[in-house]
Amino acid sequence: MIISKRICELCEERDLSQLDLAKGIDAGQKSISNWESGSHEPPATAVYKLAKFFGVSSDYLLGLTDEW
What is the pLDDT of residues 31-68, one digit of tens each? Predict the structure, then answer.
């Protein structure tokens, strides 16, 4: 899944832990873990929050474009 890879890459680039990201988007650390591992996909509301938090487009997170 592209979104799991993109979340991992963005966290690595910004030196963020799963807990840092969870706090930043008001989600649980377990949810972040599931999204990063690809075992679950984030709901639309979380994709929106992730995009805003990272300053990228939802399309980028979803793999619809390679441009932020």
Answer: 999 999 999 999 999 999 999 999 999 999 999 998 87
What's the one-letter identity of residue 46? A
| 3-class state of residue 39 by DSSP | coil
Question: So what's the pLDDT on residue 68?
Answer: 77
Sequence ranges of the domains in the chain:
2-62
Q: Which two tokens stand for residue 16?
A: 């963020």
CATH C-level class of 2-62: mainly alpha
Q: Rounded CA gap, 2 and 11, in Å? A: 14
- Residue 25 CA neighbour count, 13 Å, CB half: 27
Task: Please provide residue 38's backbone torsions phi and psi, each rounded to the nearest 5 degrees.
Answer: 85, 5
